[in-house]
Amino acid sequence: MKTRSLIIAAVATAFALSACSSNPSANRNIALGTAAVAAVGAGAYLLSHRDHKNNDGQDDAYRRGYDDARKGNGVHSNEQTYMDGYREGKQARHESDRAVDVSDIEGMRASYGEQELRARGFHDVAGGKGWNTGYSTWWNGRANECLRVATEDGRYSHVNVVSPSACR
């Protein structure tokens, strides 16, 4: 690919310079401008092609690191570009997995609330009863999120996100 670009630049330059010699007064500036544009274009193409190759290798390492972190896999390389991708993927995973919206559960009948929590990936890990209030603790391992739910008169009266350690 490099050789073909150099040949194209050389032919364009030769053509432009031959136009200069055939009609020196009228076409000289046009021919020199054409030669300069051809040379700059060929040089820019070669530089961008070389950089693209280098970036592809970096992009592959970055993408591998990003994908490993998003999938929850361990680190498989200590290469800087891979680690940059891993760090970004870990952050993206944290942001997308953490926010399980449970704001609409509060006030719901307990039986429906339980179905909704299960549908959102939670499972019941503990429960207890106070004087007139029942308490349950729910865990979502994918989101690493723990909820404490208070039930009064058959309805979820309070739904609070608590520390993950409360679910273990």
Strand order in the sheet with the most strands: 1-2-3-4
Q: Which regions are unreliable across 5 or more consecutive residues at pLDDT < 50?
A: 48-55
Number of strands: 4
Structural class, judged by helices and strands?
Answer: alpha+beta
Total of domains? 2
Number of helices in the DSSP assignment: 4
Indicate the multimeric state: single chain
Mean pLDDT across the residues is 74
Ends distance: 60 Å
Strand fraction band?
A: 15-25%
H-E string: HHHHEEEE
What share of residues is helical?
55-70%
Biggest beta sheet attributes:
4 strands, antiparallel
Per the principal axes of the C-alpha atoms, what is the gross shape? elongated
Radius of gyration: 33 Å
Short characterization:
The chain has two domains: 2-97; 102-167, no CATH class. It is built from four helices and four strands, in the order ααααββββ.
What does this structure look like?
- It is built from 4 helices and 4 strands; from the N terminus they run ααααββββ.
- The chain has helices at residues 2-22, 28-70, 80-98, 110-119, and strands at 123-129, 134-140, 145-152, 155-162.
- Helix 1 packs antiparallel against helix 2 (28-70) and helix 2 (28-70) packs across helix 3.
- It is elongated.
- Residues 48-55 have low confidence and may be disordered.
